[in-house]
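Question: Send over one sample?
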Amino acid sequence: MRIAAFILASTMTLPVAATAQSLNMFDQVSFDAGLGVSYGPEYMGAEDNDASPWFILRNVQLGEDGEEKQGFSIIPSLNYIGKRDSDDSDHLDGMDDISRAYEVGVKLSYVSGPFTSYTHVRKGFGGHHGVVGEIGTRYKRDINERLTFWAGAELQGADDRFTDTYFGVSADEAARSGHDVYEPGGGFYEANLNLEARYMLNDNWAVLGRAKYGRLLDDAADSPLVRDKNQPEISVGIVRHLNFKF
């Protein structure tokens, strides 16, 4: 809970005066897009790890005259969750399979110097139909022209449709799996700390790496499907840095 308190405190430090600031126009947008591999829990709450694809769309940056835009911005927010099959783990025997999920929504962020505080809200399709989101803060440090580091803290939340999909156990699943029936509520389900680094190989291509430590919270952590509340993950990939000017 100390991690959660830190995230909430960080997010609430947005300057009051900034709430009156209008959403300024920008003349360019840049982001990293690519593909990599992640090594982390087999499913949300698993104790065993496995490799999976990492579809990368990160580090969206709005700019004005070539400089990073300060203040408030609203941009699209997208996310993807891979499928979960009952044969992914012995602990999932008897559980329903969950298909791939796609999430679409918006991100509200506030940039002040090297710090960015943000809130995401997305609607799920496919594997789940819940409403999910994050609140958090990131710190950016340019070491040199090629190497950039980010450090962040984040809370992930969702409604009960999401938590029931990934952490719940229905009566039919309980009869097949031997787990107790479980109906989790909505709320914050994970807190995480993360470090990310990007090394530009040239003007367009870069290597991106990320290390994340997650901790399941509240109803999600108490699910009979959860074998380990700690959810570490390491990812590495190749991205193309795209920059569009208007």
About this structure: The CA atoms of residues 35 and 54 lie 6 Å apart. The radius of gyration is 19 Å. Residues 2-11 form the longest helix (10 residues).
